[in-house]
Write a structure and sequence with these properties.
Elements lengths: L1 E6 L3 H12 L4 E7 L5 H8 L3 E4 L8 H11 L4 E6 L4 H9 L4 E4 L4 H12 L4 E2 L1 H10 L6 H10 L5 H8 L3 H15 L4 H10 L4
């Protein structure tokens, strides 16, 4: 019997996944959470074989939760199941220790099979997303450019960003200018949008 934890901030989706996968004779849903920062505690209590995580959740995103879970419970394998099938997310998920990455419109039978394969120690990746990821390559942004662009999403001023990241305003301007150029954005808001769409933020 495969013990499964499901983490998704949308109660309806979480309940549907639990109901569908619970119908499988070899899968038992042992925990459900709606926040990323609840994943590790729930996993330590329920001891699942596989944790199915959404990416965008309150408290902690799925990538960070995957990394924390792998550190706290190395035997628990992680399967990312998300609406956001962005190539950049795939690489980040794998770097965080995920064994699988599929999108939410995957048919229920394929999703159950993905859980089984991940539980066996295999990797499962949505084929179209894998092809897109290989075609697109790595993020062109440096780590600092990513930090600055991510912080800029809040809409604060250059001074606000500089204060939050403990940088000079000139350094923030330089990083934003470079990020805008690399993403092909018209301005910092457009650059942040493009970077997010590609899964670089």
């Amino acid at each position: 019997m495969i013990r499964l934890l499901i983490a998704d901030d949308q109660a309806l989706v979480r309940g549907a996944l639990s109901a569908l996968l619970g119908l499988e004779s070899d899968i038992e849903v042992v925990a459900e959470v709606g926040r990323g920062d609840e994943v590790v505690d729930a996993a330590l209590a329920a001891r699942p074989d596989v944790a199915m995580l959404d990416i965008e959740m309150p408290g902690m995103d799925g990538m960070t939760a995957a990394s924390a879970l792998r550190a706290a419970l190395p035997d628990c394998r992680v399967l990312i199941v998300t609406t956001f099938g962005r190539p950049g997310y795939l690489k980040r998920a794998m770097q965080a220790g995920a064994s699988g990455f599929v999108v939410k419109d995957t048919p229920a039978t394929q999703l159950a099979d993905a859980v089984r394969r991940v539980a066996q120690g295999l990797r499962v990746v949505d084929p179209a997303l894998a092809a897109d990821s290989l075609a697109q390559g790595d993020s062109p942004l440096t780590e600092r450019e990513t930090d600055v662009l991510s912080t800029a999403q809040t809409g604060g001023s250059i001074a606000d960003i500089a204060r939050i990241l403990h940088l000079s305003e000139g350094t923030v301007r330089n990083h934003l200018s470079s990020a805008i150029g690399k993403t092909g954005g018209r301005n910092r808001a457009d650059a942040a949008r493009l970077a997010e769409e590609n899964g670089w933020l």
